[in-house]
């Protein structure tokens, strides 16, 4: 009797338009019942060939394209490209511009983590924190719109500085936001962190070992959740990050739960950095003198910054002309997606959703 | 057993904590707004539709057709047509912004030295037809007619645009009441002889009035924009 009952493995597609694949990603799953035996990600649905288009644009025109490279943290994308060109030219950036860049990028990091935490909750069936985090994210986007005029594709950081100075009402509004923000993070933690359902869905799910972090070049909060104490802001400092006092949260578990906790802690630390930067904000110019037709020196450069997801880098090859010869962008999400087939084996489909959300994969960053 | 009870107790406690947190929000008022009925205030810097600005003193467009914005545009959305008369004076013939190419980056506004092009706060300009998103000079001028802007302080040489800017005092806000006789009134005076072009193709329509105004531009260059503006505007209005 029992010999007649045999099960077959089933191959199904998750995506490309699945709500919890955060973009357009297709996962080919081989299932044994509800357990995932194999998972093969298929990428490329969002390919817009940004790198190739950059080769036909001047350096200044590349920056709006970088907004689209990873649209959740456009400030970082703007910055990393500007940083690459500035490294090639040895440009001296005015101090005020550096501080404004730090403030904006840290605000953007908070906005990105809010999105990640809210959406993770949404994917796992907790609708409330999603509404809370988006409420606070709106406040940040208001600050951005007030400063640079857009809520998503900012195009704010330019070669040699920033595009516009902050308006007068920015600093009081930003402080107002920072004052309430800690309390709001407490609220999210009350709803999520110790919640038994949340813990059951996340604890011990998708454990990334320390060795896997090195093997797959995982970076950012996902790496720090696995006990790798590495942050480019501190270990390879750029801009004025060495002037602030902040800690980098490191957790040892490596599971979805620790990745969530790392993000929550990082938001608090970012808020601290913004507060200090507002205190220290100097006066003066916001943009170095850069010629309208900007031409860096010939050469190649790799610049990297700490994005909300991990290491974001731009490799730039210049022949001294007004257009780059080659632009290569590195996004952390690619490595984060490729580790999913490794850590998903034997888990259930529902766990795949939790892992995907907690790694904070953003598809446009992969496809470019 | 003790562990189990502890876990159970802390689970219940934390669930209740979450419930308390959410129930605190019961009495708060909503932060969302009902969009079409209510709107929020858009910051002045908000980047929306690209418009052309008018000098209300002379009633002419500020644009000097220097083509800087066309070169700055990363997506090639701006197309400018320039006409040079015998004195090598540049006259703006056509100015087309293709809004389904435009990525709203604001580089055109930044590149402009004459406060001629600006990103207004207008954000509601969707169309059912793709062709209607191609705006010609007069549609852009009409959209930007009331947009406030600051005049740039001009320093050096007297090229045709700076002549008109140098004579009036430096800062004129466009919000102030425009002088009635010189301003191109958008709405009235429909001209019957305006060419009747196929209804849904402004692309075809925008070059068609050009030869007509080209002839006028040669003798008196000041009247160029004044004359051509109302006709073309009405033309486009009929189409829409």
Task: Explain how this protein is built.
The complex is a heterodimer of chains A (368) and B (240). By secondary structure, chain A is an alpha+beta fold. Chain A has helices spanning 50-54, 59-69, 74-89, 95-123, 127-148, 170-192, 196-202, 210-216, 221-224, 232-235, 256-280, 332-338, 340-343, 349-358, 363-367; strands at residues 10-14, 26-32, 35-42, 157-158, 161-162, 299-306, 311-318, 326-330. In chain A, the strands form three sheets. A three-stranded antiparallel sheet of chain A has the order 1-2-3. Chain A has a three-stranded antiparallel sheet with strand order 6-7-8. Chain A is globular, with a radius of gyration of 21 Å. The mean pLDDT of chain A is 87. Chain B is α+β, with helices and mostly antiparallel strands and 240 residues long. Chain B has one domain (50-239): Alpha-Beta Plaits (2-Layer Sandwich), CATH 3.30.70. Helix content of chain B is 32%, strand content 12%. In chain B, strands 4-5-7 form a three-stranded antiparallel sheet. A two-stranded antiparallel ribbon of chain B has the order 1-6. In chain B, strands 2-3 form a two-stranded antiparallel sheet. In chain B, a hairpin with a 5-residue loop joins β4 (78-84) and β5 (90-98). In chain B, α7 (210-217) runs antiparallel to α8. The longest helix of chain B has 23 residues, at 2-24. Chain B is elongated and about 100 Å long. The N and C termini of chain B lie far apart (77 Å). The interface between A and B is medium-sized, with 30 and 26 residues.
Please write the CATH class name of chain B: Alpha Beta
How many domain regions of chain A? 1
Which chains share the greatest interface? A-B, 30 and 26 residues
Largest sheet of chain A: 3 strands, antiparallel
Report the principal-axis shape of chain B: elongated
Would you identify the CATH H-level superfamily of chain A? Cytochrome-c3 Hydrogenase, chain B
CATH architecture of chain B: 2-Layer Sandwich
Enumerate the spans of chain A where pLDDT stays under 50 for 5 or more consecutive residues.
none
Distance between the termini of chain B: 77 Å
Kindly name the structural category of chain A.
alpha+beta
CATH top level of chain A? Mainly Alpha
Strand content of chain A: 5-15%
Based on Cα principal axes, name the global outline of chain A: globular
Whole-number average pLDDT of chain B?
A: 69
Question: Biggest sheet of chain B: strands side by side, in what order?
Answer: 4-5-7
Count of the separate structural domains of chain B: 1
SS-based class of chain B:
alpha+beta
State the helicity of chain B in percent bands.
Answer: 25-40%
Q: What is the straight-line distance between the termini of chain A?
A: 54 Å
List unreliable stretches of 5+ residues of chain B.
Answer: 158-240
How do the strands of the widest beta sheet of chain A line up side by side?
Answer: 1-2-3
């Amino acid at each position: 009797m029992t010999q007649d009952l045999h099960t077959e493995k089933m191959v199904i597609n998750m995506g490309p338009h699945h709500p919890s694949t955060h973009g357009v990603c297709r996962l080919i799953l081989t299932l044994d019942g509800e357990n995932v035996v194999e998972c093969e990600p298929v990428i490329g649905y969002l390919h817009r060939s940004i790198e190739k288009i950059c080769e036909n644009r001047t350096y200044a025109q590349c920056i709006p394209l970088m907004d689209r490279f990873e649209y959740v943290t456009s400030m970082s994308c703007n910055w990393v490209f500007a940083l690459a060109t500035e490294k090639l030219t040895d440009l001296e950036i005015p101090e005020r511009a550096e501080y404004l860049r730090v403030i904006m990028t840290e605000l953007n990091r908070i906005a990105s983590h809010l999105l990640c935490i809210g959406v993770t909750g949404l994917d796992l069936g907790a609708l409330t924190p999603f509404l809370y985090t988006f409420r606070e994210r709106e406040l940040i986007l208001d600050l951005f719109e007030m400063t640079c005029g857009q809520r998503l594709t900012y195009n704010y950081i330019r070669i040699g500085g920033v595009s516009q100075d902050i308006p007068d009402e920015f600093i009081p509004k930003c402080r107002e936001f920072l004052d309430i923000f800690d309390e709001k993070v407490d609220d999210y933690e009350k709803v999520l962190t110790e919640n038994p359902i949340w813990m059951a869905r996340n604890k011990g799910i998708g454990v990334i070992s320390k060795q896997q972090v090195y093997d797959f070049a995982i970076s950012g909060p996902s790496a720090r959740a696995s006990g790798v104490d590495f942050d480019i802001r501190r270990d390879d400092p750029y801009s004025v990050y060495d002037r602030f006092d902040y800690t980098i949260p490191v957790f040892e578990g490596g599971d979805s739960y620790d990745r969530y906790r790392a993000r929550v802690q990082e938001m608090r630390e970012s808020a601290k950095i913004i507060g200090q930067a507002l205190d220290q904000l100097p006066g003066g110019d916001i943009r170095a003198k850069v010629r309208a037709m900007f031409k860096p020196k010939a050469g190649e450069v790799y610049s990297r910054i700490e994005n909300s997801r991990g290491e974001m880098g731009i490799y730039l090859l210049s022949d001294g002309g007004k257009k780059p010869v080659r632009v290569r962008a590195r996004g952390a999400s690619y490595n984060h997606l490729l580790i999913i087939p490794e850590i998903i084996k034997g888990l259930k489909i529902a766990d795949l959703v939790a892992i995907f959300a907690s790694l904070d994969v953003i598809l446009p960053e992969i496809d470019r | 057993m003790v562990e189990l009870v502890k876990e159970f107790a802390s689970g219940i406690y934390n669930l209740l904590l979450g419930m308390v947190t959410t129930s605190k929000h019961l009495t708060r008022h909503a932060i969302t707004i009902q969009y079409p009925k209510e709107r929020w205030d858009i910051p002045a810097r908000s980047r929306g539709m690209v418009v052309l600005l008018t000098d209300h003193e002379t009633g002419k467009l500020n644009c000097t057709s220097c083509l800087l914005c066309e070169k700055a545009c990363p997506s090639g959305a701006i197309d400018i047509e320039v006409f040079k008369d015998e004195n090598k004076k540049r006259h703006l013939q056509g100015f087309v912004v293709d809004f389904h190419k435009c990525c709203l980056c604001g580089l055109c506004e930044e590149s402009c030295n004459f406060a001629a092009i600006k990103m207004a706060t207008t954000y509601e300009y969707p169309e059912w037809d793709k062709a209607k998103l191609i705006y010609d000079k007069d549609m852009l001028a009409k959209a930007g007619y009331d947009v406030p802007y600051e005049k740039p302080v001009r320093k050096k040489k007297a090229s045709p645009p700076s002549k008109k800017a140098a004579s009036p005092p430096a800062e004129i806000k466009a919000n102030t009441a425009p002088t009635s006789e010189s301003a191109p009134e958008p709405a009235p005076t429909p001209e019957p002889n305006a060419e009747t072009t196929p209804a849904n193709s402004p692309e075809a329509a925008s070059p068609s009035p050009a030869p007509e105004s080209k002839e006028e531009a040669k003798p008196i260059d000041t009247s160029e924009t004044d004359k051509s503006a109302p006709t073309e505007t009405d033309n486009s209005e009929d189409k829409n």
